[in-house]
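Dear all,

This email documents one entry for the complex benchmark we are building for the journal club exercise. For each entry we list the sequence lines for every component of the assembly. Then comes the predicted three-dimensional structure of the complex as a token string, followed by one or two observations. Please use this as the template for your own entries, and keep the labels exactly as they appear.
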Amino acid sequence: MTTPAVQRDTSARSDVALYALLELSKALSSEFNLDKLLAVIVEKASAVVEAERTRILLYDDDEPAPADVDRNLVNTGSVLRAPVIDSHGNVLGMIESVNKTTHATFDAHDESLMHALATHVAVAIERARMTNLHLDNQRYEQSLRLASEIQMRMLPSGTVSLPDNAAFAIHAFIRPAKQIGGDLYDFFWNDESLYFCIGDVTGKGIGAALVMAMTKTLFRAYAVFQYDPARLLSAVSARLYEETDPSMFVTGFCGFLNLRNGRLLYSNAGHEPPLIVRGKSVERLVSKSGLPLGALRSFKYVVEKTTLKPGDAVFMYTDGVTDASNHAEELFSAARLREVVEHCPDSEPSTIVSSVAASVDRFADGTPQADDIAMLCVQYYGAQRPVEMAEMFRRDIAELEDVFDLINRFFAAAEAGDQVKYAVELAAEELFTNVLRHNPAGGDQIEIRLKVEGEGVSLSLTDFNAPPFDVQTEAPAVDVNKALEDRKPGGLGLFLVKTMMDRVEYHHENGNSTVTLYKGR
Amino acid sequence: MFEIREGDNNHLILTGRFDASQVERARGVLMSLSEGKIVDFALLDYISSAGLGVLLAAQKRLSQRGQSLKLINVNHHIRDVFRFSGFDQIFEIA
């Protein structure tokens, strides 16, 4: 077959084939839609091998390649079929051309072209699958991020700002090892009590996260009307047992703190007992732990009791804290945790939580976090937290309105009685007007300071850079029994102040004149 | 807020807080009285020595004409202030 005609024919055919192959390369590099790409391959293949038609058949999950699939190229002369084999040697399908348009039979040249086309198809399919996988991964990551946000939003914010007179402070921290995790905490309060819980779902990832969401919801739903922590745990446990996989369970600790007297009722379901911080002393809260939640259909947990004194703090955590490891695969450990808590400068929940978080991170020193970490810390201040308010006032009678406003705010915060408030209002006005009368030319503002003192309150008024004026000795005596015609209004104000308040102190220091009055409740 | 106004049946009605910043206003009314009044304290929340001073001056002025101010509906905080200052002896408090 070396006749010139055939040679010419072959050369003309090669141009067409070459052109078709070029088109194919272009499509391969620019077309990322697999279906469109396969359509281009089918079309160009017929041109390349001069076939009447070409088709590509691909196996899929519904119709996988048979075990004995033909891995060889087949050429019957009128049918030319090449297997499409990916880089791992899997047969993905086949490409098949039928009937040479020149009425000749497919030859060895067609066979090698067909082989090249099959390789192109395999590459295109693999690339498309990888692209899809990548996109799927991206979407998955995005969903996880969203899930993480949703999960974190299920928990109350860890940083809580409370009014000055709140009987407690609370601070929480949570950091899942992956985007979503199985640790949880919750808390809410009313005037009488503070409820809180912490929990840890076995396992990690999406399964744990779903059980976490459910556990948190169950806790909240029951805690709203169930004030007994043991019954609360039993109820949550029973529901978890009914509604989750038997292999899933949750360790948990919950408590109700009476804000009036510091009485803490708590119950434990297999969780690490919290630490109790009393000044510099750190102890583990004694706790008879029950089974983890969801372990049995019915389990009776035990209520335990302790009393927090003002200043005491309860520190709860999940084992992600103590099990945090460093490069040497050492654990952070309960001993290190206790040491960190002992060395905290104060027992404020935010101080303890952030100190522990910082220590764990320093210890891990970049070692990836293996387990979710959660911490919850509550400090009890006592029913009457020390309240102090002070403000400066101009030497102007019109300022009286603001003086009374300060007293109103103070008494709202201090929750002191009306009788005390009236006396303090009157004392503040009398002292203030006394300064306006006796030292009208003073250049500085006047400070009024209110403080809760034990069971009572104190009121101090300071006139800066003022001459001494001791209300105790300099105020004129008043005879309250004089007849009307002999009564004078002078001195009545300070007389009333001394009568209505329990104790008066006077200091003149560094040129500042300060009167302090006390009134018991 | 402090308010002083004439009511029915020779009543004078004091409302709100009678403190040192209200003295001038109260003096204007109380020192121009030509006859005794029944002063209703039902709506009065607070009084300091400044308020007592104005009431004292008014009472002195009226007593020279054989007249007086009588107080009604005095809350217990204000009643204490009158008692501590001996003003319960110079005002009839019903």
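Observations: Residues 155-380 of chain A form a domain with the Phosphatase 2c; domain 1 fold (CATH 3.60.40.10). The interface with chain B takes residues 397-398, 400-401, 404, 418-419, 422, 425-426, 429-430, 433, 478-485, 487, 489, 492-493, 495-496, 499-500 of chain A (CB under 8 Å).
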